[in-house]
Amino acid sequence: MELREVKGLNEMNCQICSSKALVHVTSLGHHALPDAFLAPRQATEPFTVYPLDLYICNQCWLAQIGYSVDPSLLFTDFVYTTESNPASRPHFERLVKSFIERFELGRGDLAVDLASNDGTLLEQYGNAVELLGVDPSSAARIAIEKGLPTIVEFFTEGTARQILATRQPAKIITTMNAFAHIKELDAFMGGVLALLAKTGVFISESHHLQNVIVKMQYDLIHHEHLRFYSLRPLMVLFDRYGLEIFDVEETETQGGSIVVYAARKGAYPVSANVARVLEQETAAGLYSAATYETWARRLIQSKQRLMSLLYELKAKGARIAGIGASAKGNTIINYCGIRPDILDYITEGAELKLGKLAPGSLIPVVADQELLERQPEYALILTSNLKDIVIRRLREKGYKGEFIVPGDVPSIE
Ligand SMILES: [Zn+2]
User: Is the per-residue pLDDT at 247 higher than 90?
Assistant: First the structure.
């Protein structure tokens, strides 16, 4: 197989370095928007699908998807809330405590969270600092109801100027698991730079490309994630704004993320963690085109193995349920071509999705409880990043069937 070099073939540029030297890694087909769950009456109507292709930049090694959907279609009726992920609160609690200690934050310092969602991160500061959230989605209403000051819009340099009209520059700016969502990256970074105090710190947490590649986490690829970060492309991006990465921390979020600490050049000593993670990424092959060629082949194999297993079980008359109606799960379902003839239904805890149909596949979404009542022989885990928590919880509640976990080779647990 040869990777197709798209240089010069279209107008697509690297979202970070603007290079046209993009290599097409693979196509996952056309997908419906991953969080656009449908009302049952829409099952008889046409729906829109968007191309989902993965590219790698030959210059800065950013991995990105090819087609950027209009963010107002993706995020204004966003159904995801931070609180819905049980791992978020303890994780943010630990991080915020470390920010307060390490950067000696105190009363009067401003901490801004961009894409603050329901305010779960901001809440962890308590009264230690002045707080402000910025978020364009409907989740911002939840934060406002909690009494957390939140500006409801997409963050740009204009937002930064508006904040600075009444407040001091920010000592800490965070954006957790949203930095890969931002379409207008330059407008966003311009805003960060304008808002950041002289010795302020910009902290972002993003899923780590290394895990997409090494652990075959292809379910992270959907239209809300425009980019998959490793350190090199982030260094190129920050450098353009006079910022440098002075520390990086690996976390378990989303099955393996990096928390990246950036500040104005020279403001903080650069930790040895930066060189260590860069070395690790190089050893994992992230900065070599051959890695992506092999990965594309592994991806096809993983689909083939999962579908062979599901077809075999279904042909024997097994009942199979899906667990977790998430954007990631919809990538697995739509990439593999799983439809209601294979998966009877998907169980889900979030009220907003119940009674709806999964986008693209039209598989019905039902309450978690149904799995325990119907006891299907198999349960396909569709949120691989939460697999251990989900399996433990469902076993405790009394599910007796077997779990199927997708991956390079699907496992039965
Ligand atoms: Zn690039």
Answer: yes
